[in-house]
Amino acid sequence: MILHGYWRSGTSYRTRIALNLKGLIYDQRPVDLSTGDQRSGAYLALNPQGLVPALEVDGQVLTQSPAILEWLEERYPQPPLLPPELGDRAQVRAMAALVACDIHPLNNLRVLKAVKALGGEANPWAESWIRPGFDALEALIERSGDGWAFGGQPTLADCCLIPQVYSARRFDVDVSAWPQIAAVEARAADHPAFQAAHPDNQPDAD
Fold it and tell me: Would you say the pTM of this structure is higher than 0.90?
């Protein structure tokens, strides 16, 4: 397996967490978003969208982190990142999508550059989307969490949540306003799979 990603990318971060939780061995090929490596001919040949991550595996190139996470769950079902009950699986997917679809895309690098180009400020813009998303996640974790975002084991929801918490801190959002989320973050900080995936521990980290 070869993971093409960027150390601080939330989508690359969530993919690393899932790979680590599955106990999979993979090589990393950094794509420096800050210098435009994602727009190089070589990378566009790999992923025409020019985004990270891209996972080379089994003679294929997988893109879009939600699809990669679902593929990992289907290809390597143990340990599971989705609960056994159908309704619970839908709940976990909804929590993951709340981050992956409704928060993260609005504070990624491309959008922030566009906001700045229009005269806006990155931190207030990002916070305006993080806060309502975290409010909803806080309620969902309080309802269904038991040490993790859903239940007592890490799931796809945690794979998405923890990188978004990291991002929130970068934008100076006070995460203590959401004690359930902060508790999951603290638990993840002690988990080897999450520790190894942390941006600061990547080979291309600044």
Answer: yes
